[in-house]
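=== Structure Prediction Worksheet ===
Name of assembly: unnamed complex
Input type: mixed (protein and possibly other molecules)
Chain count: four
Listed entries:
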Amino acid sequence: MARRTFHRAPEAERRHDLIEATLDCIAEYGLQGATVRQIAIKAGVTAGLIRHYFQSKEHILQEAYRVVIARLTEKAERVTGDPEQRLVDFIVINLTEPVANSRSLSLWASFISRVSVDPELAVIHREGYLSFRNALEGLLADFLSTRGADASPERCRRLAIAINGLLDGLWLEGCLAGELFEESELVGIALTSIETLLGLSLRQAGTAR
Amino acid sequence: MARRTFHRAPEAERRHDLIEATLDCIAEYGLQGATVRQIAIKAGVTAGLIRHYFQSKEHILQEAYRVVIARLTEKAERVTGDPEQRLVDFIVINLTEPVANSRSLSLWASFISRVSVDPELAVIHREGYLSFRNALEGLLADFLSTRGADASPERCRRLAIAINGLLDGLWLEGCLAGELFEESELVGIALTSIETLLGLSLRQAGTAR
DNA sequence: TAAGAAATTGTTCAAGCGTATAATAGCACC
DNA sequence: GGTGCTATTATACGCTTGAACAATTTCTTA
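=== Predicted Assembly ===
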């Protein structure tokens, strides 16, 4: 019986492909659909190869979760420009593609549901969450002081918690039921609400956006 | 070989117990841990009985999801009193026990992750979500008009979306990392934020709470 | 171009899965 | 206190799962 020909890939590329295949499986069929065999089919290899790269199925899932968190946070954490623009970009990025879509939510929820079950995932989660909120708190502090507003640590902390919640919640709503909202309606609501919470305008005249 | 003795339970009670056992399994071990055998063990019966009450495993999961949604929304939708108190209670209920805890989140996330995969669950989800947001929109409309503020449908819609998002997000934060917040800190942040968004006070002098 | 390292395949295994069904035991009713 | 109904148990079946491992192929390098 003829053995199938195969391509010998660099380790980094192969690991990446396997993780990508894992995410595809989870997004399409849920965590239950992410079996080593399904992942292998999706990646175009055989099941045995997965255990050549990952100690166990748990390990590939942990790596996959790291990738999911990175994709959800990396863009927003690298905003540039003046404090106002950084804050606005942070908001917009979190509520538009590719961060906000049903696939992201599907992946996120799949892993979140295991965070309380799997201590390894809990560690990965906690890191991502704190880093995200700290980034937001920094943006707020910069913006508030630039505008000469109260930027005390206590106020920044509370505002960061509230605005983090607001962004998370609107992200959720958009991902779960994007078709219930008009184009960029959620972004508009977010910007208006955050302006109100901060007591400052985020869309000053003359700033084309 | 001695057959184990058993109790012949009323249908409603047995179905309730089986669903409760299902939720326990999901909360403890994730959706993957909710196998018919595990559920049966948790409920103190044998696996075969589950298929006597539920057409398939899918069906018991659907029923279980209905229960989860009901528990997350029923208390908040039955608030009473004047518009202000109803709104405040709505907020507090959603951010405190038993709605806000890690078990609730675990269950919610488990099902949410399957909403995009399973059309039956998607229907159940959509109903619950719309009913929740409508309830909030009604509370806001009542409260705003009582206070003589702008209660136009467009404003109520946008405020409901924003406040729904804020509550969802803070609920998430509290469930995921309750120990990062002081006792009732999230409730305080929610009340303050919503007062700011509405431009009205929710804690008038003389209202003991 | 031969050899050796290791990436990849193909096969096997025991365990656990959802489902099906026959046997049994609890309970209501006469 | 039988009798009949059916809730419940017990067992079996076919499949899929994660894992293990030997066989094979590719690629590097000398």
